[in-house]
Design goal:
By secondary structure, this protein is of the alpha/beta class. The chain has helices spanning about 5-10, 40-50, 50-55, 70-80, 80-85, 90-100, 110-115, 155-160, 160-180, 270-275, 285-295, 310-330, and strands at about 30, 60-65, 100-105, 120, 130-135, 140-145, 185-190, 240-245, 250, 255, 260, 295-300, 305-310, 335-340, 340-345.
């Protein structure tokens, strides 16, 4: 069985009168939402990998995803786990630590992107090494996802809903089902101490329509509101209206000014693309199909994700899913496809860092 405490403490939790769970009875998922010590996820990884069924099986790997590297390391240092401090240099614990892959996703969008691109390397050639796993994982741990929805920025919180949280969890289970092997399905564990304090609206609030005739309506109309359409009025005569929002800090040293451009703006410049990218929504199903069929390598050049494909993959991609991409791009305005090079416009690409 897996434990959240070091071995010297775990022995007191197991009673001889309680029979051990058989492999068929072991839970496939686990939710821990109460208070727990910071090193609990680490001990869960070690005890899971020490299970004889996992130790002798083909899936000897654990993926641990947490929002912030700095916050988690500070919590571990403040807790000062004696067992980890005394045994971290031991050969057995070092071998178990090498089988744990820690990734950091600072926002919900980063997490959705990470879950979409996580892959298992079936050959010796690796692509996107930081998100390519050597073996099929037997456990995925998601640490404190409520922090994505408990931000101080009212704009970010107002755009989230309970459906956003459930969609994130559903995406996690979908990723686990894809990464698990046929002989050893991947289990899911959720550590969320702030889940009882999480309060999200069931639906997203509708933005109130401005009384100013020059303000954009963003496609929303109140019932009973009157509006007039002037077909003879030139669109170039009216200025482009922009709604300024507070800066959104993406990293410690990077601040991106978010400008939401009115839908009437037809500018195709790079500046407009970056501004429009602040409202990008990732469609994971299509992204997975696009990456699987046409990806050759991915670069992170600042503000945009450049996806390049070879000519053969591009032809296959055009024949199979171009119509679907065109419909999706026309609906959301988030991807521009031109020749064998596609540009997925995003505000900023996640920096996925593996723990050393």
């Amino acid at each position: 069985m897996a434990f959240l405490f070091p071995p010297q403490h775990a022995s007191s939790l197991v009673h001889e009168s309680n029979p051990s769970l058989s492999p068929a009875d072991k839970p496939k998922s686990l939710l821990i939402y109460g208070p727990y010590h910071p090193s609990a996820p680490i001990h869960l990884c070690f005890s899971h990998l020490s299970d004889p069924a996992i130790l002798n099986g083909p899936s000897q790997s654990v993926v641990f995803i947490t929002p912030s590297k700095e916050a988690y390391l500070e919590a571990l240092a403040a807790y000062d786990d004696d067992y980890l401090y005394s045994n971290s240099v031991c050969g057995r614990l070092s071998r178990l630590s090498a089988a744990v892959k820690i990734l950091y996703a600072p926002t919900a969008s980063h997490l959705h992107f990470l879950l979409a691109v996580l892959r298992v390397s079936e050959t010796a050639t690796k692509r996107m090494e930081k998100v390519t796993l050597d073996v099929h994982p037997s456990l995925i741990i998601l640490h404190e996802p409520s922090r994505y929805f408990l931000k101080e920025d009212p704009i970010e919180v107002g755009q989230q809903s309970m459906a956003s949280y459930l969609s994130l969890v559903a995406h996690l289970f979908s990723c686990a089902a894809r990464l698990g092997s046929s002989s050893a399905p991947c289990q899911v564990t959720l550590f969320d101490s702030e889940l009882p304090q999480l309060k999200l609206p069931i639906i997203k609030p509708v933005e109130p329509e401005s009384t100013s005739p020059s303000s954009p309506t963003n496609g929303r109309r109140r019932s009973g509101s009157s509006s007039s359409i002037h077909p003879n009025r030139s669109s170039s005569a009216s200025p482009v209206h922009r709604r300024q929002a507070p800066p959104q800090t993406m990293d410690d040293d990077t601040t991106v000014q978010r400008d939401d451009i009115d839908e009437d703006d037809d500018g195709d410049g790079e500046e407009e693309e970056i501004r429009r990218a602040s409202k990008t929504v990732l469609v994971t199903g299509l992204a997975e199909k696009f990456f699987a069929r046409s990806i050759e390598f991915i670069k992170y050049p600042g503000q945009r994700l450049i996806v390049r494909s070879n000519e053969a993959a591009w032809k296959s991609y055009r024949n199979d899913v171009q119509d679907e991409v065109s419909e999706w791009a026309e609906k959301l305005g988030e991807m521009r496809i031109s020749g064998p090079e596609g540009v997925l416009k995003r505000g900023r690409i996640p920096e996925l860092v593996q723990s050393q």
